[in-house]
């Protein structure tokens, strides 16, 4: 059981900044995210894209903003449960909540802040008859343990970075690696494209483009794929394989959060924006892109604001009897849970002769 | 204020004729969102960076449209339900030349 003061679901910019604001109030946070790394959309979809509307930054790359946020919250030692989705929310008799992730980890906290953005990123599955029947029987939408492909005949489909990167990585592990893409052009980092070209030239990767997989077959597990060369008159060719990894990107889905008894409107969680971004379940807040209220804007800077107000409310909820007033960081500095201390240098008071 | 009329068929098959402003630096994806012709969270997920294909549309009229950029071409090559007349709504800038444009929003995937 992982315990914290605030359990944050979603490690995007809003969730990460909430750790900072909570830290100023000496509240400890733990974050859950379905993606394997923190940063949410910024890290997953567009790490190299510039953002122009973060106050104080005329321009910042999405990936850089995530790095900066991670640096900013480091003194507050957030815990992370990554690569697994929050599945259930249960309210305990003592008023605390237990959130269980898909991998079975239980997280307990008196306050839950859902900073889930557009939802959890789920792999996009190609429209292939019979595909789902072979899931975990040779078909996987993400590579969890590359070793299971050792000595196997692996087929990868897709034209983006993950298709390129895994083709490169698995070329050394698999006995045969085939990469199929609908076009001859790939959409990925230039050095990955060049590396695949090299591996193709040296015979380590078999590249079939432009082509599509039109069928799968096998008895109890995937044993072959039918490959249709685009524009060819000839019938689809049968390719013997042990594993098929379709990598067509990720698409966000609200997922299990939608069944937690929260008020859902327009694929988002309805919150009280007049006060503290609390949902219809007291103690459960929703901040950032995942929430909705009249006039809502899905902007990172709005998420930061919402995170800040949420933390103040969470503090009151956890310590109803404590008196507290907000303190500026320029005055109070930052005292990390790791013992670190940052503060403004003291002005020198000295008489002038 | 300048406007053109655009007919958008939603994912349920209902056609809507809407006034599309051409002086607000808007694109077709944003127009669909502005008129709420597809539920929030099912369109324009990447915000208009040609990175998710949630705004894929089929162009049903013969209007001359700007060529696809490499990014759009690449995204459409990975998307599902793609047809010859598929375009990403976020890459279609609303201009006066689009008067009478007819599009259909592609299924969610």
Automatic annotation (TrEMBL), chain A:
Catalytic activity entry: 2 reduced [2Fe-2S]-[ferredoxin] + NADP(+) + H(+) = 2 oxidized [2Fe-2S]-[ferredoxin] + NADPH
Secretion signal span: none
UniProt-listed Pfam families: Pyr_redox_2
Keyword terms of this UniProt record: FAD, Flavoprotein, NADP, Oxidoreductase
Residue ranges of domain FAD/NAD(P)-binding in the record: 5-294
Assigned EC number: 1.18.1.2
Enzyme class per UniProt: oxidoreductase
Gene Ontology molecular function: ferredoxin-NADP+ reductase activity; flavin adenine dinucleotide binding; NADP binding
Annotated residues for binding of FAD: 14, 33, 41, 46, 86, 121, 289, 330
Cofactor section: FAD
Cofactor note (record): Binds 1 FAD per subunit.
Assembly: Homodimer.
Family membership: Belongs to the ferredoxin--NADP reductase type 2 family.
Protein name: Ferredoxin--NADP reductase
Species whose genome carries this gene: Robiginitalea myxolifaciens
UniProtKB/TrEMBL annotation, chain B:
Record has Metal-binding as a keyword: yes
Record keywords, A-Z: 2Fe-2S, Iron, Iron-sulfur, Metal-binding
Xref: PROSITE patterns: 2FE2S_FER_2
MF (Gene Ontology): 2 iron, 2 sulfur cluster binding; electron transfer activity; metal ion binding
InterPro entries: 2Fe-2S_ferredoxin-like_sf, 2Fe-2S_ferredoxin-type, Adrenodoxin-like, Beta-grasp_dom_sf
Domain 2Fe-2S ferredoxin-type: 4-109
A Pfam family of this chain: Fer2
Domain of life: Bacteria
Cofactor: [2Fe-2S] cluster
An example Gene Ontology biological process: P450-containing electron transport chain
Similarity comment: Belongs to the adrenodoxin/putidaredoxin family.
Protein name in the entry: Ferredoxin, 2Fe-2S
Species for this entry: Robiginitalea myxolifaciens
Phylogenetic classification of the source organism: Bacteria, Pseudomonadati, Bacteroidota, Flavobacteriia, Flavobacteriales
